[in-house]
Amino acid sequence: MAFDAEIRQALIDQVRRFVTEKCIPLENQVGETDEVPQEIVDEMKQLGLFGLAVPEEFGGLGLDMETECLVALELGRTSPAFRSVAGTNIGIGSQALVLFGTPAQKDKWLPGIAAGDLISSFALTEPGAGSDAGSLTTKAIRDGDHYVLNGTKRYITNANKADLFTVMARTAPDVKGPKGVSAFVVERNTPGVSVGQPEKKMGQQGAHVCDVIFENARVPVENLIGEEGEGFKVAMSVLDKGRLHISAVATGMSERLIKEMVTYASERVQGGKPIIDHQLIQALLADSQAETYAARCMIMDAARRRDAGENVTILASSAKLFATEANGKVADRAVQVFGGAGYITDYGIERFYRDARIFRLYEGTSQIQQIIIARELKRAAQADQL
Amino acid sequence: MKVLVPVKRVIDYNVKVRVKSDQSGVDLANVKMSMNPFDEISVEEAVRLKEKGAVEEIVVVSIGPQQAQETLRTALAMGADRGILIKTDDNVEPLAVAKILEKVIGEESPELVILGKQAIDDDSNQTGQMLAALLDWPQGTFASEVILEDGKINVTREIDGGLQTLSLQTPAIVTTDLRLNEPRYASLPNIMKAKKKPIDEKSPGDYGVDTAARLSVVKVTEPPVREAGEKVEDVSELVTKLKAKGAI
């Protein structure tokens, strides 16, 4: 479905207004207190942000990928901790249900996810396995009408607030590799599920990651998402979408940092003129702009193709690789343009510099994206589709 | 009760306006436009009255170019029920706006009209008062509180000396001041639903109102650039300087 252009613009304008008026003034506070204030969370719920990617019939907005990315670009223009509050409900925490859930599963959980009353989280990574879902060791062994889960998940975003987890676990321990993995919805209050303390992190204060531990946690069979053995497929589909979303968030941050750099460089005087008139500064700004624009174009192209039904695995990974690496360079240049001020906490630039670092790590590191891109290229070549 | 809320599309309050080089007005090219903030307060008040059950229907009206439809959609997303766009590319002055609204009110028969006390583009602060005069309705301007009670409208007004409370018989005109409420953010689902709410399209001619300008703008200029002050050593030097300038 092509999205109405006027509605799309109204949505983007409203999100930008929310970010500008409500989030940006609180950036320093959230960075210091490691907590997004509850009032802001409530306002995000009222605004409908948690339901961006949940279909309308379940109380969400049912945005297409192009519109979701445009909204994510706007959400990227402030500390990523704000986006993270709703981020797992919008993305990796909800999409397994949206894409593969049964009608009963959708009815049960999606309305709460869309309203933000249920926080959903995605539990794939383990101490010994991450993007290579084939190496997972968390087990889910069928016992009557339940599966019994045992294992530990690591660095799970929003785990401390989560009511639901999408968990990838091995249902066939004898089957090595991805085929033995299945996806489940696990409710937080299931006996045997516990969540560790939030990790202390380099950046993104206000957003939290924790271990999630399953000790003989009995999950009803009706909580299986898709078929047994489809877990890897579920995870990869969810991540294709999540990678575009994260690319957009990172690129939104780049756009914000360009604005901050240009504003600062226009005011800061050295050698008798604003530093924006010094050519070495101009090069930093121009490279940032060119790379950020290229990233935006890649994201929008991949999003439109996904909306048109194309397989975008290689495009999503390319966009994630390029957009987040570009963002890292832009954040580094922002510190450089600000000079000493870029290193001082009050200016907020060093905070963005730290926040940006995670974009090249989660939802698959840059190296994982390279591997996926190369793997897909090889596959396409073998099928004579290049 | 039916409430009518006129809304105006103006330059967004965050935009730094620039004067056109020929001094004929301000530059509107590629400038972000939004609903007049006082009108947003009016829509919010109407929606709150509806949520309390005191109001059944909220009709929003905008007089302006085609894009004023976006302003109506914003009001519909906030909770208004339907819109009327009175399309014109002319700069419609407050008296003509009041005359058009008088006719709209004749057709719609609202019992309450809530207007912003002024629009932030021309800061006229006239339309509400003119409309009350044309209709010969009671008016409560600069409202900081509006309470509906037994067919009466109690309006607390911000006046120079403090607060004044009036009791108005319906139908009545209320104009809103800054402290009446804090307008909500239209939620994203409501923005999407607003597209389905009806907007009627009319023209000033449909109401037989001549919108030709009665005023002509002679010149628009930037405020003078503030000049640097002077530093003085002590109070006696300050007093001497002020005396020398004839200021005291």
TrEMBL record, chain A:
Query: Does Iron count among this protein's keywords?
Result: no
Entries under PROSITE patterns matching the protein: ACYL_COA_DH_1, ACYL_COA_DH_2
Q: Which InterPro entries match?
A: Acyl-CoA_DH_CS, Acyl-CoA_Oxase/DH_mid-dom, Acyl-CoA_Oxase/DH_mid-dom_sf, AcylCo_DH-like_C, AcylCo_DH/oxidase_C, AcylCoA_DH/ox_N, AcylCoA_DH/ox_N_sf, AcylCoA_DH/oxidase_NM_dom_sf
User: Which cofactor names does the annotation list?
Assistant: FAD
Residues of the Acyl-CoA dehydrogenase/oxidase N-terminal domain: 8-117
Record Gene3D superfamilies = Acyl-CoA dehydrogenase/oxidase, N-terminal domain (1.10.540.10), Butyryl-CoA Dehydrogenase, subunit A, domain 2 (2.40.110.10), Butyryl-CoA Dehydrogenase, subunit A, domain 3 (1.20.140.10)
Keywords, comma-separated and alphabetical? FAD, Flavoprotein, Oxidoreductase
Domain named Acyl-CoA oxidase/dehydrogenase middle: residues:
121-216
Q: Which family does it belong to?
A: Belongs to the acyl-CoA dehydrogenase family.
- Provide the protein name: Acyl-CoA dehydrogenase family protein
The organism of origin for this protein: Henriciella marina
Automatic annotation (TrEMBL), chain B:
Record carries keyword Disulfide bond: no
Task: Tell me where in this chain the Sigma-54 factor interaction domain is found.
Answer: 58-248
Could you tell me which InterPro entries the record lists for this protein? Answer: ET-Flavoprotein_bsu_CS, ETF_a/b_N, ETF_b, ETF_beta_N, Rossmann-like_a/b/a_fold, Sigma_54_int
- Please give the SUPFAM superfamilies that the UniProt record associates with this protein: Adenine nucleotide alpha hydrolases-like
What is any Pfam family matched here?
A: ETF
Against SMART domains, the record matches this protein to: ETF (SM00893)
- Assigned keywords, A-Z: Electron transport, Transport
Q: Which family does it belong to?
A: Belongs to the ETF beta-subunit/FixA family.
Q: What is this protein called?
A: Electron transfer flavoprotein subunit beta
